[in-house]
Amino acid sequence: MATKRPIPKLSSIDELLLLSEQPSASSEISSPDGKIQSIPISKIRKFKDHPFRLYEDERLTDMMDSIRNNGILVPLIVRKIELDDRGYEYEMLAGHNRMNAALMIGMDQLPCIIKDSLTDEEALMYVVETNVLQRSFSEMLPSEKAKVLSLRYSDMFSQGKRNDIINELKKLENPQYNKEDPTSALIGHKLKSRDIVANEYGLSKNTVARLLRIDKLLPELKKRVDDAEIGLYPAVNLSYLTETEQRIVEDILSRNEYKVDMKKAELLRDYSGKLTAEQGMKILSGEANRKPRGKSPVPFKLKHKIYAKYFSPQSKASEVEEIIDKALEMYFSQQRQIDQNEETKEEDYVHEI
Questions:
Q1: Mean pLDDT over each residue of the chain, to the nearest integer
Q2: What are the sequence ranges of the domains in the chain?
Q3: How far from the centroid of its chain's Cα atoms is residue 197's Cα?
Q4: How far apart are CA 191 and CA 8, in angstroms?
C-alpha cells in the first residue's frame, strides 16, 4: 500500500491563496462534499457581478511565481450551473485570484470542490467570506466594504449558515482547525442591528450607514469611488438617484472631465426622481451653480485736465460729486427740452403740409 504524504500546514490564508495546482497532493485533501475533481478552467466562469477586484502588479506576480513552484494544495470552490451559451458548466465561488493567476501561466485544469445545491445568497456568502478571510477588511476598497456590510445587514443573512461557511473555509486552509466556539461574539452572535455590525468591523454607525448607501450605486460609479474620483460623502448623495438617473450621471462623467464635489452631489440629489440629462449636464459642468454676472456700469475716470479746469485741488470729493450730479441733471434736462422742441417743429411742419 502506498504511503500517503503528510498534508502541508499553512500558516495563513495568504499562503493558502498563493498555492497552485499539484494533482498528486490535491487528492489527499478531504472535502465535506466528497472527492476533489479536476475541472478545465474553460468550463468555469467568474461569479456574476463579482464585487472584488483581482490581484494586480506585485501581488499577482508573487501568486504566479508561487503557483509555478508549489502547485495548488488547497482546492477551489465552485458551484454547478446549467450549461450556458459560452460553454460554462461551473461558477467560481472561492478562488478567483488563483484561477486568474493559473490562466496567466498557462494552466488549464483546477482542483475544485463542487457545490450542487446552493442558493444565490449562499453562493454570495462563499464569495464574500473568502475575501474577508484572505485580507483585512480595512484593506478593502470602499465598494468591497459596502458589499460585505450589505450582505451582513441584509434580511437574508443567516448567521448559522455563515458559521458553516467560515468553518469550511478555515478547515480547507488548515485541516487541524477546530470549529469556533458557538458562543463567540464574532461568529456565534446573531446580528440584529447596525451597532453590532459596526463593532465587528471597527466602524462607526454612521460609516456603516454610508457604506451601505455606496452598495446602491451603479458598478461604474462604485469604481469611481474606489479610484477616489468621487468622494465618499458625494457618493452617498448620488446613491439616492434612481438607476436611470445614475446612468445619466455616469454617461456625462464618461464624456467629460467634470469633478463631483459635495455641492454638485447635493444638487443632483435634490433632483432625485426628476433629473434630466440637460439638468445633469448643467449641474456637473458647474453652470447651475454659477452666479449671474451683474450689469454694473463701466467704471469712468475723469481726466485731470478736465478736473483741474472746474475744480481746485482743495475741493472735497463729496462736493465734486454733488456738482457733477447737478451739472448732468441740468444737461440732460436741457437735452430733453431740445428734443421735445424738435419733435414739436416736425409735427407743425407735417401739419402745414
A1: 78
A2: 13-215, 217-291
A3: 21
A4: 35
Q: What is the largest CA-CA distance in the chain?
A: 139
Give the count of beta carbons closer than 10 Å to the beta carbon of residue 228.
Answer: 10
Radius of gyration of the chain from Cα atoms? Answer: 36
Query: Rounded distance, CA 150 to CA 154, Å?
Result: 6
Q: What is the mean pLDDT of residues 12-20?
A: 42
CA distance 76 to 152: 23
The string of DSSP letters for 67-122 reads HHHH-B-S-EEEEE----TT---EEEEE-HHHHHHHHHTT--EEEEEEE-S--HHH
Residue 183 banded pLDDT, cuts 50, 70, 90:
very low
Which among 79, 73, 84 is positioned nearest to 39, based on CA atoms? Answer: 79
Cα dihedral angle (59, 60, 65, 69), rounded to 10 degrees?
A: 100
Q: Quickly tell me which residue has 446573531 as its cell.
A: 190
Q: How many residues does the chain have?
A: 353
For residue 192, name the pLDDT band (cuts at 50, 70, 90): very low
Q: CB of 71 within 8 A of CB of 22? A: yes
H or E segment to which residue 134 belongs: helix 120-134
Q: Tell me if the pTM is above 0.85.
A: no
Rounded Cα–Cα distance for residues 214 and 240 (Å) = 10
Provide the pLDDT for residue 179: 63
Task: Give the sheet arrangement for strand 109-115, strand by strand.
Answer: 37-40, 109-115, 76-80, 90-94, 44-45
Rounded distance between C-alpha atoms, residue 30 and residue 33, angstroms: 9
Per CATH, is 13-215 categorized as 3.20.20.70?
Answer: no
